[in-house]
Task: inverse folding
């Protein structure tokens, strides 16, 4: 029994062995263990407080999820800072001397880790300003689009529609231009450009494209916003350029690629049903002089082919006003309309 007590006494005496000295403070194995123990307890307390805040917010439906996230992150930073100061004080280091050392260290850190400090400050600003929240769908100046998943100390995690996680430094959200698609409202309007051949009846185009918009499940048709519209926007080089303008349902706002593909699919289907030609780039050739006797045999064949092409185009223009020929039940399936 006495031997066991001696072993225990020697074990605790080992904690008093000196490791190094900071000024007048002696750092021992026991002080290091006490420092680590306090930091671990601080982290556990921080996690408990964060879980308590989340449970409290779940009972209060009026609190937004983004506000809860910002509150929990700020609570974590504050608790860890207090715990760190308490742990340092328990070792025996004078906090006033530590403040002087920290200020001197801060100058060096300011030069060597300027980007890290900038990203940390930007992250705190984002949490307080709430211009960027978890769950927002954003588009960066670099062209990256996705949903905000986490706002951390140094960076923000954005998940694209292809389920790719992109880590963006927080400073990019403060210094660069960011388009937040869902900052205050989740209703957005989309512009889908398309073109038809010259000579096409505009009213027929409008009828065909509005029918296409009605078939797309992403189109908002609850009466709170304007119904889909077709705008004639430009006389193009080879086409009459239009835009389908439609309001989207909230769940479709963060899927711009799939939504645009769904509208284009249905627009092309309707244009084919109404025999409306989708043009391709072309140029008119004006011949100043012509001699029929100077035309080679193969050139005469080419001329006859050109005449047949012109007759075919005239026939297509005559059929442009016809009723849709395709059976609605036999339309090709629109995969993009289901990609939500």
Result:
């Amino acid at each position: 029994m006495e031997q066991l007590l001696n072993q225990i006494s020697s074990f605790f005496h080992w904690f008093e062995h000196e490791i190094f000295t900071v000024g007048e403070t002696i750092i021992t194995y026991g002080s290091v263990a006490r420092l680590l123990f306090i930091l671990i307890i601080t982290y556990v307390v921080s996690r408990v407080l964060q879980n308590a805040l989340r449970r409290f917010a779940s009972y209060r439906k009026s609190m937004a999820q983004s506000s809860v996230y910002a509150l929990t992150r700020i609570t974590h930073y504050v608790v860890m800072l207090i715990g760190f100061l308490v742990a340092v004080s328990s070792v025996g280091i004078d906090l006033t001397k530590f403040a002087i050392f920290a200020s001197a260290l801060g100058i060096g850190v300011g030069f060597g880790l300027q980007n890290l400090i900038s990203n940390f400050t930007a992250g705190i600003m984002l949490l307080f300003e709430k211009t960027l929240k978890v769950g927002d769908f954003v588009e960066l100046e670099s062209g990256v689009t996705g949903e905000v998943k986490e706002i951390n100390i140094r960076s923000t995690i954005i998940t694209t529609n292809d389920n790719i996680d992109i880590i963006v430094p927080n400073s990019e959200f403060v210094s660069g231009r960011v388009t937040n698609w869902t900052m205050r409202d989740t209703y957005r309007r989309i512009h889908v450009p398309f073109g038809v051949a010259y000579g096409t009846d505009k009213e027929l185009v409008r009828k065909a494209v509005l029918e296409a918009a009605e078939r797309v499940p992403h189109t908002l048709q609850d009466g709170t916003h304007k119904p889909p519209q077709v705008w004639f926007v430009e006389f193009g080089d080879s086409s009459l350029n239009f835009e389908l303008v439609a309001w989207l349902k909230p769940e479709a706002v963060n899927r711009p690629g799939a939504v645009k593909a769904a509208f284009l699919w249905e627009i092309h289907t309707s244009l084919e049903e109404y025999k409306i030609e989708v043009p391709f780039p072309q140029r008119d050739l004006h011949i100043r002089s012509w001699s029929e006797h100077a035309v080679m045999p193969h050139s005469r064949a080419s001329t006859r082919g050109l005449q047949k092409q012109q007759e075919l185009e005239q026939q297509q223009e005559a059929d442009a006003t016809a009723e849709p020929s395709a059976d609605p039940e036999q339309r090709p399936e629109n995969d993009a309309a289901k990609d939500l």
Summary: The radius of gyration is 35 Å. The first helix runs from residue 2 to 14. The longest strand covers residues 189-196.
